[in-house]
Design brief:
With 93 residues, the protein is α+β, with helices and mostly antiparallel strands. It has one domain. The chain is built from two helices and six strands; from the N terminus they run E-E-E-E-E-H-H-E. The chain has a four-stranded antiparallel beta sheet, with no helix packed on it. A two-stranded antiparallel ribbon has the order 5-6. Helix 1 packs antiparallel against helix 2. The two termini are 26 Å apart.
């Protein structure tokens, strides 16, 4: 039985089933992922957006102009490159 998930931030919404790789648009806002169905029921996950290393380089080398451009096109931010969604019921304590 597949688990259906939705990843969303202020740049869009992406539907997928697990297991799967999903390409999303970066954003200054956090990425929320909710899943339902499957054998483990419903669960949610949040990935925190953070400024990436090139953003800090632009601030140091190029000043505010480079940083503003990166922020406008969302290249200044990143989420973890790989996220494993595990419902609490699947984790051993």
């Amino acid at each position: 039985m597949p688990t259906t998930c939705v990843a969303s931030n202020d740049k869009g919404r992406w539907n997928f089933q697990t297991p799967n790789a999903v390409q999303i648009k970066k954003s200054a806002g956090d990425l929320t992922i909710t899943c339902e169905g499957g054998l483990v029921g419903n669960y949610a996950f949040k990935a925190i957006s953070s400024a990436n290393l090139p953003m800090w380089g632009n601030i140091i080398a190029g000043g505010a102009v480079g940083a503003v451009v990166d922020m406008q096109n969302s290249t200044a931010f990143e989420y973890p490159a790989r996220m494993v969604l595990e419902p609490a019921i699947c984790k051993f304590v």
